[in-house]
Amino acid sequence: MTAKELKQELEYKNKSAFDTISEDELERSFAYAESYKLFLDYGKTERESVSYAIAMAEKRGYTEYRLGDEITEGGKYYYNNRGKELILFKVGEEPLEKGAYIMAAHVDSPRIDLKQNPLYEDSGFGMFKTHYYGGIKKYQWTAVPLALHGVVVKNDNTVVDICIGEDEDEPIFYISDLLPHLAKDQMGKTLAEGITGEGLNIIVGSEPYREEETDGAIRLNLLRILNEKYGIKEEDFLSAELSAVPAMKARDIGLDRSLIAGYGHDDRVCAYSEITALFDTDNTEKTVFAVLADKEETGSDGVTGMQSEIFADILAEVCEAKGANYRVVKANSKCLSADVNACYDPNYPEVLEKKNACYINHGVVLSKFTGARGKSGTSDATAEFTGYVRNFLNDAGVVWQMAELGKVDQGGGGTVAKFLANMNIDTLDVGVPVISMHAPYEAISKLDLYMTYKAFCAFIA
Ligand code: MN
Ligand code: MN
Question: Rounded to the nearest whole angstrom, what is the distance from the C-alpha of residue 136 to the centroid of ligand 1?
Fold first, then answer.
């Protein structure tokens, strides 16, 4: 045997999907990316992504399930958790004690939330106070167009939906930054300190109410506009969830259009791939769950986060309907925890270790473990379960790669994986490599998106 043959036989190479993909499949992956871009444009908060996913599910025969409702074999259901988390499931024919197939992604993304009492006036500007949501680099959120999304719950419990700044003819919102001419002190600070959390105040307007001389006339005028447009008063802010998100739409990057820039790829890219895989796969044997969780970016706590017991409750209800032992079902279930990973970035090679990083266009990323500093906080999939996933991906011709998030001791991160693993469900992290993760405008590749979709299809086929 020649050395070349031996290499071919024994060595592992992390390869680009472009090496093997057919023209036909390449075309399909680019077409798939078009529908994904719409999912991004219409879902910039977890609430909007959940609504969009519900509309997609209903078109495909899924019906709303409420706790206690009857569940039948062959049934296709969705559970809408307070409009902020969605659990889709279809009930298969095979005994559930063989295990359920679970895909779990999140649909919340880093952003700038308004404080509960946000409106004030200073030096001729009407402003909103904010408290950022998730892990952001604060300086990235200044001097970019922002849209305002969310809900206001009025005193009579009616809910007003707000979405301002997405249409070209609508106004946007804006956080100022300092001109370089006067930024001597600011430029000497670290990136973490250059812009402060309390400094992320949003410009909302500047025109006073001019009927008569009054204090706070700009504030008053803004309240007047909000009242005329939405019927809300200042106290209504106290029971509102309003977020400033990037006003940009998803767009292709590059002369070859192979990449997509967009807000909230983390983690709507995995959310979209898992639900479309669910819709496009017609296996009637398996019982499959697709979770679109909220609150991942703040630790998965709360009623709509992955640490809430709602997923366990629904699984238990399905077990009861199928006459299956809940504990046995969990022990035999399999989960792909779907979240993005840090793509190898040639501008920042120093934080990634080349042999264990993920690369653009090299397909869906598997991460056996996540965590930081000595793997702390990871659920760490077993070698056996990792082998199981590797095997079906190879069989299905899915291009995949294995990576960990960054160099040892450089930092790290977690996903929802451990919350499912803690339930005694085998769980492995899979996802899409992302450039500029958590920035207002992140980037991914169309082929990686498509391979992630294909991976989910293979998992539940
Ligand atoms: Mn994520
Ligand atoms: Mn994230």
Answer: 13
